[in-house]
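Notes for week 9. Today we move from apo structures to complexes. The key idea is that a small molecule is not decoration. When we ask for a structure prediction with S-adenosylmethionine present, the ligand SMILES becomes part of the input, just like the chain. The input block below holds both the sequence and the ligand string. Read it once before you look at the output, and try to guess where the molecule might sit.
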Amino acid sequence: MKAAYNTDPIKYIKATNRDIAIFSTEGENIDAEVVESFGDEWLKFHDFSDEIIHDIAKEYFDLLNDTIVNKTTYAIDIGCGTGRWTKYLTEKVGFVEAIDPSNAIIAADKLLGKTENVRLSKASTETIPFADETFDFAMSVGVLHHIPDTQQAMKDCVRKVKKGGYFYCYLYHNLETRGWWFKTLYWLSNQLRKVVCKLPSKLKRFVCDVLAIVIYMPLVLWVRFLVLIGLRKIAVKMPLSAYNNKSFFVIRNDALDKFGTRLEQRFSKKQVETMMQQCGLEEIVISPLSPFYHAIGRKK
Ligand SMILES: C[S@@+](CC[C@H](N)C(=O)[O-])C[C@H]1O[C@@H](n2cnc3c(N)ncnc32)[C@H](O)[C@@H]1O
């Protein structure tokens, strides 16, 4: 099932559990600072327990079923980060290739431990080291909105999918269905992000921990209180309601993810659909559920 690389790696490095092939990550459609920042982030936050992974996966992967992913599936996780979803995928499919251009690939090696049906490679969307139309299933979760030209990056991913295979992605939504006060809060937090993301990495991590306590936790506790007194319908409309059942570890990680990243782009549902169509995908389904927007399409 495992395909041969279609380019020679620059070198191999010995990680704790496996050798990792290193490919060039230079290119026009990559933000080197963003990648470095993610490398730092994931080397700190990689201790995802199986329980946390399965818990969050229920929300991210509600669109998958046994027809789309099963033990005959050859899959690729593009921008795997810590490999938390790679790990989830290894339980469902035959073999997973996981690539990331950052040092997170080392964290992924740790998280995946001795898992056998996976190979890790350091590469980017522009340097995916496999021939076109290799995979039955490709996914890119929370990655493409951190790449300068999201549409081009998506095309580079979908090229690697076989005809009739599936492409799954999660892209930040542009808050189009939210009220003015929600959008105002986002605008304010985005101004803060523009400052925080420029801090040196240790200070950035510290500031994001503080933000997790002073911004995330009060809102999350408010949501939990509303749920407790039976006002779930109101609670789900509140900012950060998605963190209602999440641990503080996940909240800290997401605070660093959201405030620590220099480049993030946001899309409407229509834009997500159009981008997927432009890549030659059909049977596109965009989940009506959080996290917004996660979507799947089938390659024509
Ligand atoms: C928010 S993280 C998501 C990681 C993982 N998919 C997850 O959901 O846990 C974004 C990841 O995209 C990777 N990334 C950034 N630019 C990329 C590019 N041009 N090609 C591939 N991956 C990229 C980063 O290194 C980072 O690990």
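Residues 30, 34-35, 38, 42, 78-82, 84-85, 100-102, 104, 124-125, 141-143, 146-147, 257 surround S-adenosylmethionine (CB under 6 Å).
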